[in-house]
Design goal:
By secondary structure, this protein is an alpha+beta fold. The chain has 2 domains: about 45 residues, no CATH class; about 60 residues. It contains 3 helices and 6 strands; from the N terminus they run βββαβααββ. The strands form 3 sheets. Strands 1-4 form a two-stranded antiparallel sheet. A two-stranded antiparallel sheet has the order 2-3. It has a two-stranded antiparallel ribbon with strand order 5-6. The longest helix is centred in the last third of the chain and has 29 residues. It is rod-shaped, with a radius of gyration of 28 Å. It starts with a strand and ends with a strand.
């Protein structure tokens, strides 16, 4: 859901065009704009974005003999040991993909510190 301005507003301090999003373009002074012209109008617009997925698979296997040996000698259930390890590895792989995407996206953002000027 995007909140947008419905009309174009221009005054001495700022300029807002129709379809500007409220979170990206804010008036410098609401009082100046409201006193000089008609009040600013906003609306919300529902938009959709394509979300893609990546299939991840992990596999482990063991023999019945190995499971029986582990249970009889060490009182260890092999399945209850392996499933949490697979779950942890899946979470680590997902985190790696997110960090790589953030790192790749950060290369395109250029900001001047303390000024708010970002391209």
């Amino acid at each position: 859901m995007d909140h947008i301005y419905t009309s174009t507003y221009a005054d001495a301090k700022d300029a807002i065009t129709a379809e500007d999003r409220l979170d990206q373009k804010r008036p410098v002074d609401y009082a100046v704009g409201a006193e000089a012209t008609a009040p600013r109008e906003i609306q919300f617009k529902l938009t959709s974005k394509l979300i893609s997925t990546v299939e991840q698979k992990l596999r482990t296997d063991w023999t019945i003999e190995a499971e029986q040996d582990a249970r009889s000698q060490w009182k260890v259930d092999v399945e209850s040991e392996m499933v949490p390890m697979l779950s942890d590895e899946t979470a680590r792989e997902t985190d790696r993909r997110i960090i790589e995407a953030l790192y790749a996206g950060a290369a395109y953002l250029k900001c001047v510190p303390f000024t708010g000027n970002c391209n």
